[in-house]
Amino acid sequence: MTRTIDSRATLSYVGSVVKYLSAAMIVPLLTAVIYAEDVWVFAAAMAAGIALGTALERVEPEPDLGPREGLAVVALAWLAAAVVGAVPYVLAGYGDGSALAHPVNALFESMSGFTTTGATATAELGVANHSHAVLLWRQLTQWLGGMGIIVLMIAILPELAVNGAQLMRSEAPGPELQKLTPRIAETARVLWVLYVGVTLLFVVLLYTLHLAGVAPNMTAYNALAHGFSTLPTGGFSPEADSIAAFSPVVQWAFVPFMILAGVNFALFWYVFRDEAEALVENTEFRVYLGAVTVMSAVLVVTLYRGGAPPTELGGVTEGVAEGALRQGVFQIASLLNSTGFATADFAQWETHTQFLLLFAMFIGGSAGSTGGGIKVIRWLILFKTLRRELYTTANPDVVRPVRLGGSVVDEDVVRGILTFTLLYLLLFALAAVFIELDTARAGTPLSGTEAAAASLATIGNIGPGLGPLGPFGTYEFLPNTTKLLMVFLMWIGRLEIVPVLALFVAGLDE
Q: Higher model confidence: residue 278 or residue 509?
């Protein structure tokens, strides 16, 4: 007989997440005090969230967490985070006609933030339409979700560390969890220290460019806001024109940090321990860097030869070496690992150029990074598995394991990757069909290509799509049914599908 999930223990752990996540609203609350905007919004939202979390914690004072409860905690904690994160949007927009005042739009924006998708349900970006505090909360949700809400909780809550490996395995992006230290709580803290350190380095760099006079609009607020959304590969910006709002020097400054965000953070740990050879010897890192380089080169040549018409944002690239190089490298660095920033409206580029970008979106970042998508390591193992199957078909008496970096890949890992990839592609295709049909029903039709891009942008946590959903577009006009589907896609895509779907079959017998 299959054991059911202990709902009381699950709710207790979810309550802890809700409580401490609500406490993070102190950052936008202080911002609200500084700018004298929306103080009551964040004071009320934070108080309500802490009270709710505390009440849920007391449902089971000493919860016992099993494997099924671990899956449930991770899945429900991310849903709860999106709901809690939506409350400030609804309160701040109530009565002033803001798109984010609508609960579905607010939930979409919040889920997009925590899952580091970067798709937006409002066309009213900028401090002229939203307060500094609301926009900073929007950025902060991406930073909190980037390294992982559960990883953060394990780092600061001793009671979660007892079952930390199980929880992190369900949340961590990639086919396996790399344990850096003997204790899982210490590993979680190491990851967050690295994450905070690189974020601060980038913020300081951006503000230094402002002080040097080459980035007049990169204020301390903008530097912090973009630091919150770059390292988590988020893509939100308080500027309506995204990174196109800044000078070419600033745009170039984003490129190396976006590429770094797609690298397995465990490799940074080895570099800081004077074991830099681990970086060079890592097969996934070499392939990831190679993919960025090759695809950037192809896009640069395409843009230089006229693959993009001149636009107000992005300028001329045809025959302009620096413009083609900057736009090509930036867009690949942003989209290949799902960051979603933009310096040009690629929704207006030539069709063949857009398909190159869609191909980049399928690749994804490295396992253990904050990047979305299928992930480089999965593609590597998939191709090696395909090669093995072709070889053993011709040589049926030969036993040939899949190897990566000189090590044999466990068959359970291979099977898990095949399962994930099949589910990913199946959900992507089914969602694309639903989006095309539902938008046509609602009188806001998307073409087949635009619907496919929208499906990929949400399940891959990428953000911008094509057409009206492009980098400077909005998802606001879509029917609520489509937006709720996309909320589901962002949620299940961030948790890499299998842990969420496993919950639906956890109580079923064969």
A: 278
With vertex at residue 408, the alpha carbon angle to CA 403 and CA 414, rounded to the nearest 5 degrees, is: 80
Integer angstrom CA distances of residue 221 from 28, 195, 210, 238, 348:
12, 19, 11, 10, 31
Which positions ≥6 away from 21 have C-beta within 8 Å?
49, 53, 81, 84, 85, 144, 149
Would you say 172 and 396 are in contact if contact means Cβ atoms under 8 Å apart?
no
Q: Are strands 403-404 and 407-408 parallel, antiparallel or unpaired?
A: antiparallel
**pLDDT tens digits along 70-102:** 778 888 889 999 999 999 999 998 766 688 899
pTM given for the model: 0.92
Pair of tokens at residue 55: 């009440």
**How would you write 189-242 as a 3-class SS string?**
HHHHHHHHHHHHHHHHHHHHHHHCCCCCCCCHHHHHHHHHHHCCCCCCCCCCCH
For the chain, the distance separating the N- and C-terminal CA atoms, rounded to the nearest angstrom, is 11
Closest CA to 167 of 258, 92, 76: 76
Q: Please report which helix (H) or strand (E) contains residue 265, including its range.
A: helix 265-272
The one-letter code for the residue type at 123 is A
Looking at this protein, which amino acid is placed at residue 267?
L
> What would you report as the CA-atom Rg of the chain, rounded to the nearest whole angstrom?
22
**The pLDDT value given to residue 154:** 61
Helices H / strands E in the chain, number of each? 22, 2
- What are residue 173's phi and psi, to 5 degrees? -75, 125
